[in-house]
Amino acid sequence: MALKTFRPLTPTSRFKALPSFEEITKSKPEKSLVETKHKTGGRNHYGRITCRHIGGGHKQKYRIIDFKRKKRDIEAEVKAIEYDPNRTCRIALLEYKDGVKTYILAPVGLGVGDKVIAGENAEPKVGNALPLSAIPLGSSLHNVELVAGRGGQIARSAGQQVILNNRESGYALVKLPSGEIRKIHERCYATIGQVGNVEHMNVSSGKAGRSRWRGVRPTVRGMVMNPIDHPNGGGQGKSKGGGGRHHPMSPWGQLAKGFKTRKKHKTTSERSSFTLIAMPSEMFAGTAAASTAFEEESPNAIRAFRSSVSSVILESVLPPEDVFAKRAAASDNRTSASEIFFFSAARPLRLLTASRSRCSSFEALPLPESSPKASIRSFSSDA
């Protein structure tokens, strides 16, 4: 996609850079794949503004996109590349052999007449959707699922792509545009290629009116408002946030510079706790049979102990009875090399390696009556 620039005959055209739309092959959407789109003007059902800077704009219809690639192992032909006002990238109209039509996000290099398919045995080429377990390492991906079957959620805007770095223990390590490496289950589907319309980031509308056509209303700084309208409003002349020097705040009074807003108990950063039963090596003989049974029932759990990964989510629930498992080697100087881990398997567990360097707290618990020689410690570790 190329951008059109204009001679500076007017202030509007001086900095204007608009998409050329040369890749668009069809001007009207498929009627069976559109829905009406109700405009709210940023108001809720009471008529009060709940989202500022929204209102007006051209009437739009929503295009139904197949983020899940529901039809598997059936080849489809690209019939058209269309414009979608609801997203920054272009969309491709597919027609399957059975006559069904769907929309997908149009990646770079996909054109009219190309054939695409979704499935485990599909060829890893642009436009095809495969599970992460079947995609070659180093591939560029978009429309990546976070939960298998939920549909693509990552890398869907214009020019976006993620890189498949590695696979380990049933999970794929995907590098996001931010540089973050995300762990995603290898059963999740992703589409090969980079999202199209890569020049979107360089578009310059040239005038305020074009933003109004898109339904975007003006944004006003809080400092130039009245005190009734914003915490930083008021004051004489160009004062810094009212009568005195106030810290910048949001319209609702929350500090805007450096104030930490992450929830303390967010699941992705929550500290996990579990109980460790460490037994001397001479006590291990009586539990060898239980350890073997545990390894046969839950090989994923044993793999978690032997790997250097700090944590793993078990895919299956452990046996209903309490079981023992021997750890491969000691990672803590206060315990012996022949440790036994005891788990209550009422629900799927999160297993963590017991490295002392990761422990923020380490405390002794009362000894159980059945195992007078065992030392029981409970500690919490960062996930």
Question: Mind sketching the topology for me?
Answer:
Layout: E1 3-5, H1 11-14, E2 17-19, E3 34-36, E4 61-63, E5 76-82, E6 91-96, E7 101-105, E8 115-116, E9 129-131, E10 140-142, E11 144-145, E12 152-154, E13 162-168, E14 171-175, E15 181-185, E16 189-192, H2 208-213, E17 272-278, H3 288-297, H4 299-306, E18 311-313, E19 323-326, E20 340-343, E21 350-352, E22 359-364, E23 375-381
Antiparallel strand pairs: 1-2, 3-4, 5-6, 5-8, 6-7, 9-16, 10-13, 10-16, 11-12, 13-14, 14-15, 17-23, 18-21, 19-20, 22-23
Helix pairs in contact: 3-4
Largest sheet: 6 strands, antiparallel
Query: What series of H and E elements makes up the topology?
Result: EHEEEEEEEEEEEEEEEHEHHEEEEEE
Question: Structural class from helices and strands?
Answer: mainly beta
**How large is the share of residues in beta strands?**
25-35%
Summarize the structure.
The chain has 383 residues and is mainly beta. The chain has helices at 11-14, 208-213, 288-297, 299-306; strands spanning 3-5, 17-19, 34-36, 61-63, 76-82, 91-96, 101-105, 115-116, 129-131, 140-142, 144-145, 152-154, 162-168, 171-175, 181-185, 189-192, 272-278, 311-313, 323-326, 340-343, 350-352, 359-364, 375-381. It has 3 domains: 3-198, OB fold (Dihydrolipoamide Acetyltransferase, E2P) (Beta Barrel); 222-247, no CATH class; 268-381, no CATH class.
